[in-house]
Write a structure and sequence with these properties.
alpha+beta, globular, paralog of FGE (formylglycine-generating enzyme), Phosphorylase Kinase, domain 1, four-stranded antiparallel sheet, 15 helices, 26% helix, 3 domains, single chain, 648 residues, Transferase(Phosphotransferase), domain 1
């Protein structure tokens, strides 16, 4: 099986004798980013290189090529200066020559922390959180304030990012990490000669940055932060939104959004001298807005705290007591001091709010299906009421992260609970609807690379004899060829290895249920129940002809297809329902005799999915009971985690 080229680099090649290229992540304006594995330190990394395609497009502009390379080198230097949990960490950099076909070409590369999750954009609502005050407060506290901490850390070492936007903030679980420093500038660095090309992203670009990139300072980042905060409240900016202008909420409802609107206006003032001057000041203003009492807890308008300073050119807001216009506060301070009575009332309101939003209660109310007790355990066979539960769109609360990152680097997506449909194609014909609690599921099946890492970490508990890997006396994995010329995992010199690097990102196969369960337990997770897996397989697919065609196409993908080659379903999960089956939990206990081999039987472990059965018109085949020591060249696995376990 030959290596697959998706960018300038080939999947499976080893860069500089250190990094195995596992997959292509994406391409930006001038660079390509790859997922790779560092051989000597046994860790996954992200590698960014200058795109050869981009360099080729600059044949007539030699000076611009050198500027681009200099900007890339600057990115390495700037990222290395910032040490903060909310800033992407840089590990290494270098230059080498890559051979593609009969040609050699030089590249420069940057090795960074690998963050397999999504971006800040995916934590935001397309329509905006306004007027939902709880969701807006939660988003600010969970994501935006830590994001501000990262920007403040950059500014403290003299770095202005100049391209802050949701797509340039990666999410490591619930932790935002600022990335993409291609336009960043340090006060101590020598300026790079700029062409007349506009550098930046217009919706988040301050007016002075558009006019002269070299004259921007920290206040350009403040403007971008204000625009991001505006988007979170009002919704994603549209093409008709005029760039470089001051932002304001259209019709802010309630004291909190009114205060937040004043912060947004002060952060996005068109003149930089009229703008909030530092991240510290912006954060303080937002935290003051968060202290504003909700409408239900506000005794009267007379006790409200004063709003932020008016935007230049507008009238100060009217005083709630006299109805007269207030005087503008001093530019050095955004907020008027609170009176003693407001402090007392604010403390009471904060206590009430804390009591209302205790996080320990959220999992019960979120995950319990209709008609069940909050403390009753989930059952894969649906002994609870068969009444349909809430739909996936209404069952989730914003308190839970959309994604988690496991200790093995896997990305897990949140799946909202609900009833598994009892219909053709669900694999549960003849059974009543089964309620499923909310849970997290791996985005992809476990890969050869991940399983090799696990085997080596658990090496003291394993034995290898005649090509059979046993752990704690039980069969975990069968070595050898999965198919012709495809032998992904070998055992040599006392350790497990990938025989061919470009098979690293393919699903691990010939693994038993014992071996799959051992992996899941090792990383604090478990195998999915059959109802959880079927719920994702059935409700995760779209209903259009295009969705069906895409499924049928993936269901015939060859063995050895990289996991990232499969399309994401509505939950962000890849590869469910393809020609590769997956281990799951099928019942309450182990089977005996031939019962475990019967379709729909009550074996402890079942194989889910696999080759489509067109003659039965099933989109997803029914679960098939199997003994836990069995393994197949067409069966792998993925893991899940319950919401309760993930939030502890």
């Amino acid at each position: 099986m030959s290596a697959k080229k998706v960018g300038s680099l080939e999947i499976g090649m080893v860069l500089d004798d250190k990094w195995v290229i596992l997959d292509f992540i994406g391409k930006g304006g001038m660079g390509e980013v790859y997922w790779a594995h560092q051989l000597n330190l046994k860790r996954d990394v992200a590698i960014k290189i200058i795109s050869q395609e981009w360099l080729d497009s600059l044949d007539c502009e030699t000076g611009e090529v050198e500027n681009c390379l200099e900007r890339f080198r600057r990115e390495v230097q700037l990222m290395a200066q910032a040490h903060h949990p909310n800033v992407l960490q840089v590990f290494d950099c270098g230059s080498t020559v890559v051979r593609t076909g009969d040609e050699d070409f030089p590249i420069e590369y940057l090795v960074m922390e690998y963050v397999p999750g999504s971006t800040l954009r995916h934590t935001m609502s397309e329509e905006g959180f306004h007027p939902d005050e709880d969701r807006m407060r939660e988003w600010i506290s969970t994501y935006f304030l830590p994001f501000l901490d990262g920007v403040q850390a950059l500014h403290e070492v003299g770095i202005v990012h100049r391209d802050l936007k949701p797509e340039n903030v990666l999410m490591a679980g619930t932790t935002p990490k600022i990335a993409d420093f291609g336009l960043a500038r340090s006060r101590a660095a020598k300026p790079i000669t700029q062409s007349m090309h506009v550098m930046g992203t217009p919706p988040y670009m301050a007016q002075e940055q558009f006019l002269d990139l070299r004259r921007t300072d920290e206040r350009a980042d403040i403007y971008a932060l204000g625009k991001i905060l505006y988007e979170a409240a009002e919704g994603k900016m549209r093409p008709e939104d005029v760039p470089f202008r001051q932002a304001r909420l259209k019709s802010p409802q309630g004291p909190f959004f009114q205060e937040l609107d004043q912060v947004i206006q002060a952060a996005t003032a068109e003149g930089k001298d009229e703008r909030i001057s530092s991240v510290k000041e912006l954060k303080a203003a937002i935290e003051d807005a968060l202290q504003c009492m909700p409408p239900a807890s506000t005794p009267s308008t007379q006790t409200r705290t004063a709003t932020a300073k008016p935007v230049m050119g507008t009238q100060p807001p009217a005083d709630g007591v006299t109805g007269k216009a207030r005087s503008s506060p001093s530019p050095a301070r955004m907020w008027i001091p609170l009176s003693a009575i407001v402090l007392v009332l604010g403390g009471v309101a904060a206590f009430m709010l804390m009591e209302r939003e205790k996080p320990v209660e959220a999992p019960r109310s979120v995950t319990a299906p209709a008609g069940s007790s909050p403390s009753s355990p989930a059952s894969p066979f649906g002994e609870r009421s068969a009444e349909p539960g809430p739909s996936p769109e209404t069952v989730l609360r914003p308190a839970f992260a959309a994604t988690l990152t496991g200790k093995d680097g896997a990305v897990l997506h949140l799946v909202a609970g609900g009833p598994v449909p009892s219909s053709v194609g669900s694999g549960l014909e003849g059974e009543r609807p089964v309620p499923v609690r909310s849970f997290y599921m791996d985005e992809t099946p476990v890969t050869n690379h991940q399983y090799v890492e696990f085997l080596n970490l658990a090496r003291a508990r394993t034995t290898v004899e005649d090509g059979v890997v046993r752990g704690e006396g039980k069969v975990w994995l069968f070595l050898g060829e999965v198919s012709t010329d495809y032998e992904p995992i070998v055992f040599k010199d006392g350790l497990f290895h990938l025989k061919t690097a470009h098979h690293a990102s393919c699903p691990v196969l010939r693994v038993s249920a014992y071996g799959a369960s051992a992996y899941a337990r090792f990383y604090g997770r478990r195998l999915p129940t059959k109802t959880e897996w079927l719920y994702v397989a059935v409700t995760g697919m779209g209903q259009s002809e295009a969705d069906t065609a895409a499924f049928r196409s993936e269901a015939t993908s060859p063995i050895g297809t990289p996991v990232m080659a499969y399309k994401s379903n509505r939950y962000g999960i890849r590869g469910v329902g393809t020609n590769i089956g997956e281990w799951g939990i099928g019942g309450d206990g182990p089977s005996s005799g031939e019962v475990g081999r019967k379709e729909g039987g009550t074996s402890e472990y079942v194989v889910l999915g696999g080759v489509m059965r067109r003659e039965k018109r099933e989109t997803v085949p029914a679960p098939v009971g199997r003994f836990p020591w069995e393994a197949s060249s067409t069966v792998g696995f993925r893991t899940v985690q319950t919401v309760e376990d993930a939030t502890r």
